[in-house]
Design a protein that fits this description.
alpha/beta, Udp-n-acetylmuramoylalanyl-d-glutamate--2,6- Diaminopimelate Ligase, Chain: A, domain 1, UDP-N-acetylmuramoyl-L-alanine:D-glutamate ligase, Protein-Tyrosine Phosphatase, Chain A, six-stranded mixed sheet
C-alpha cells in the first residue's frame, strides 16, 4: 500500500497525456483538418494559463466566452482547441490549421468538458468519494481528504470546484498514482447533482444534510431532498451511501437507497456515532464509536455542527478500511480554511469569526449558536450580508435570521444587502433595541462598527459568497491590529 504525504497538494504527480483519439472518443466531436497524432499534457479553459502543451476548451462562462480568446491562446503557442460547432464561421480556423493547430468541434463545449472528465475518471484507477448537502460540503470534503490521505494518495477538489466546470477541472488533476479522489457536488436546480455524478461516477456518496438552500431553483425542502438524493441514484451498484442519521429527510433518502448505507450522527441508529461532547476554547472533544472500539477526538474547530462533518469523514475512513488511529490523526490535525469558522485574534483584543464563505438559513443558525458558545458571556456582535437563491421565501427567512440573532444573545446587529431591512425587522420584533441595529452598505456598517467595538468583543461575519463579506473581515482586522 502506498502511504501518501499528509498534504497531497504538496506532492508532484505525473500528468496523464491526452491523444487526439482520446478527445474524439470522449466528446464525440469532429476534427477539422488532419489528425497529426499530437499529444497534449493537460486541458485548460483559462486563456491566461494555457500553455503550448495544453488542449484549450473554449467554454462560455458567466462572464467570458472562451471563443473570444481562442486566437490569443493560438498566438501563445497552444496547438489544440475544442470549439462550439456553431462558432466556427466566426473564427479564423483556416489560419489556425495552416499554423498546425488541431480543432475539434462539438455541440456544447461545457458538455464536452464534462465528457472529457468522465473519460479521464474512467481510465483512472482511483476510486471516488462524492459529497453533497445543504451545509458542510466543503469542510466535510476537506476533512475526508485529510483522513483518506493518511494512507492513500488522495486528490481533493480544487477550492470549492463543485459545478459542471469546476468538477471536471478537479478530475483532470487525477494522476496515475492517485488512489482516491474526494470531490464535492453543488447544485442550484434539479438534475445538476445527477449530471455531476455522471461525470465523477462515485464509489462512495455522502449527503451531509437537507436544508433551506437554493430554494429559488428547487422550490421547497422536499425539492432540496430530491435534488440531493440524485447522488444516490448514480452510485455504483456496489457503492456505499454515507448518510446523516440525525437528518429526517436524509433518512427518507436512506430508506430508498439500494446500495449499502452507512449512517453517522448522534442518533442511536448511527454506526459511526458521537457522544460525551465537551466544548473547548476553540473546538470540542468527543468520543466516537467506530466498529470494534471507541476513540476520543479533539476537534480544533469551533462549532458543534463541525462534529457532523468529522463523523462523515470518519465514516468514509471506516468504509475504505482505515484504522481508528489513522482516522483520529486525520481529524485532529485538520485546520479550517479561511472563511469557514476561522477565528482571528487581534492586537486590540477583538475576536473575529470569519464565516464568510457562504450562507443559508441552516448555516446562519449554526454560526450564531457557535458565536454564543465561543463568547462565553462576553459581548457578541453579528455582521451579516444577504443569503442568496432563496426565491419567494427570502424575505421571511432573512427576518428569521434577525430573530435568531436576538435569541443567540447578541448585543448588536450590522446588516447589509437587499434584505438587510428584513433582518433588522426580525431583530426589532424579537426585542433588540433599534439603536443596536445598523443597516447600510459595507462601508457604512464597518465605520459604525469600528466606532463602537470594544476589547474582548466577539464579532461573527457571515453572508453568501456573492456578498464578499470577507471585505469586512479584513478591514476590521486591519483596524484591530493597527
Amino acid at each position: 500500500m502506498h502511504i501518501a504525504n499528509h498534504n497531497p497538494a504538496d506532492r508532484s504527480h505525473d500528468p496523464v497525456s491526452w491523444t487526439i483519439a482520446d478527445c474524439l472518443k470522449a466528446t464525440g466531436g469532429e476534427i477539422i483538418g488532419e489528425n497529426t497524432g499530437r499529444v497534449f499534457s493537460g486541458i485548460s479553459i483559462d486563456s491566461r494559463q494555457a500553455t503550448g502543451a495544453d488542449l484549450f476548451v473554449a467554454i462560455k462562462g458567466d462572464v467570458h466566452d472562451g471563443h473570444g480568446f481562442a486566437d490569443d491562446v493560438v498566438q501563445n503557442g497552444v496547438r489544440g482547441l475544442i470549439l462550439d460547432r456553431e462558432r466556427i464561421p466566426d473564427l479564423p480556423w483556416q489560419e489556425w490549421l495552416k499554423a498546425g493547430v488541431i480543432c475539434i468541434t462539438v455541440d456544447d463545449t461545457i458538455q464536452a468538458l464534462g465528457d472529457l472528465a468522465r473519460f479521464h475518471r474512467l481510465r483512472s484507477s482511483a476510486s471516488v468519494v462524492a459529497i453533497t448537502g445543504s451545509n458542510g460540503k466543503t469542510t466535510t470534503r476537506q476533512m475526508t481528504a485529510a483522513v483518506v490521505s493518511q494512507v492513500f494518495n488522495t486528490l481533493s477538489s480544487r477550492k470549492n470546484f463543485n459545478n459542471n466546470i469546476g468538477l471536471p477541472l478537479t478530475l483532470f488533476d487525477l494522476a496515475a498514482d492517485h488512489q482516491w479522489a474526494v470531490v464535492e457536488l453543488g447544485m442550484n436546480a434539479p438534475g445538476e447533482i445527477a449530471s455531476l455524478a455522471e461525470i465523477c461516477l462515485p464509489d462512495i456518496g455522502v449527503i451531509t444534510n437537507v436544508g433551506p438552500a437554493h430554494l429559488e431553483g428547487v422550490g421547497s425542502l422536499d425539492g432540496v431532498m430530491k435534488a440531493k438524493g440524485e447522488l444516490l441514484g448514480k452510485l455504483k451498484s456496489d457503492g456505499t451511501a454515507i448518510l446523516n442519521a440525525d437528518d429526517p429527510r436524509v433518512m427518507q433518502l436512506a430508506a430508498k437507497t439500494k446500495q449499502k448505507v452507512l449512517l453517522y450522527g448522534f442518533s442511536g441508529k448511527a454506526a459511526i456515532r458521537a457522544f460525551d461532547v465537551t466544548p473547548t476554547d476553540r473546538g470540542h472533544t468527543f468520543s466516537m464509536t467506530l466498529p470494534g472500539e471507541d476513540v476520543c477526538i479533539e476537534l480544533k474547530i469551533p462549532g458543534r455542527f463541525m462534529i457532523f462533518n468529522a463523523l462523515a469523514a470518519a465514516a468514509v475512513g471506516v468504509e475504505i478500511g482505515l484504522s481508528p488511529d489513522r482516522i483520529k490523526i486525520g481529524l485532529e490535525n485538520f485546520q479550517p480554511a479561511h472563511g469557514r469558522m476561522h477565528v482571528l485574534d487581534t492586537r486590540h483584543g477583538v475576536h473575529i469569526i470569519d464565516d464568510t464563505y457562504n450562507a443559508n438559513p441552516g448555516s446562519m443558525e449554526a454560526a450564531l449558536n457557535t458565536l454564543q458558545t465561543l463568547r462565553k458571556g462576553r459581548r457578541g456582535i453579528f455582521v451579516t450580508g444577504d443569503m442568496k437563491e432563496l426565491g419567494q421565501q427570502a424575505a421571511g427567512l432573512h427576518k428569521d435570521v434577525g430573530a435568531l440573532a436576538v435569541r443567540a444573545g447578541i448585543a448588536a446587529l450590522y446588516a447589509t444587502g437587499e434584505f438587510a431591512p428584513m433582518v433588522a425587522a426580525g431583530a426589532a420584533e424579537a426585542g433588540m433595541e433599534t439603536k443596536n441595529i445598523i443597516t447600510g452598505d459595507k462601508k457604512h456598517i464597518l465605520k459604525v462598527l469600528i466606532s463602537r467595538v470594544e476589547p474582548d468583543d466577539w464579532i461573527l461575519v457571515k453572508g453568501s459568497r456573492a456578498m464578499a463579506m470577507e471585505d469586512v473581515v479584513w478591514k476590521l482586522k486591519e483596524w484591530a491590529d493597527s
